[in-house]
Amino acid sequence: MATITAFESITLDGVMQAPGRPEEDTRGGFAHGGWALGRDDETTMAFAAASMARTRALLLGRRTYDDLLGFWTSTPEPNPFTEVLLAQQKHVVSRDDDAQPGYPASTLVVGEATETVARLRAEVDGVLTVLGSGALVRSLHRAGLVDEYVLQIHPVVLGSGTRLFGEAARADLALVEATTSSTGVLLARFRVG
Question: Residue 60: enclosing H or E segment and its boundaries?
């Protein structure tokens, strides 16, 4: 049976919307896109690499899949992500059974997220890592399917935007590891339960 890790960049007030670039996700009139830019350093990169080294496959919502791979496959190389993202096995969660994943090593997982992911989790071994995919993470969190949260908590408060947990039920987390980057990003890994 697989375990599920949610790897997220969030602000101090829990916003996860559009960390990477201004036009990444403007839903709801969000005007703070790109809030995480300029905060990567050797520590954040090593932390992300260690998390990805534990990953057997990625688990992505359809919107994040299209945006993430669309962006990195159109970004000039060399960059540290394109080759890894294309090679990594990806499970794309969607309600649309006509959707066709457009990148290699991609499998469509069709249906209600909690049901399809619970089945997938029972069928495979290793760590399934969710990147971004806020609606998917919130759904899996409510269903008790997330085993670990790997968070890059940025020292910024935005006051608006989509939050990682939204109106979630209480969950007790145990801190597994934590460090701070030279740019003030708190890097923390929490186990659920």
Answer: strand 55-61
Q: Where is 39: in which H helix or E strand?
A: none
Q: What CATH number is given to the structural domain containing 111? A: 3.40.430.10
Statement: residue 177 has pLDDT above 80 = yes
Determine if the peptide bond prior to 155 is cis (ω within 30°). no
Structure tokens at 163: 């939050």
Residue type present at position 166: G
CB-side neighbour CA atoms (13 Å) of 119: 9
Predicted confidence (pLDDT) at residue 80 exceeds the cutoff of 80 = no
Contacts of 78 (CB under 8 A, 6+ apart): none
What pLDDT shows up at residue 139? 96
- The predicted-structure confidence for 128-141, as pLDDT tens digits, reads as follows 999 999 999 999 99
The residue type found at 99 is A
Full residue range of the structural domain in which residue 114 is found:
2-192
- Reply yes or no on whether the pLDDT at 78 is more than 80: no
What is the torsional sign of CA 63, 14, 42, 39?
positive
Q: Count of domains in the chain?
A: 1
Query: pTM here?
Result: 0.94
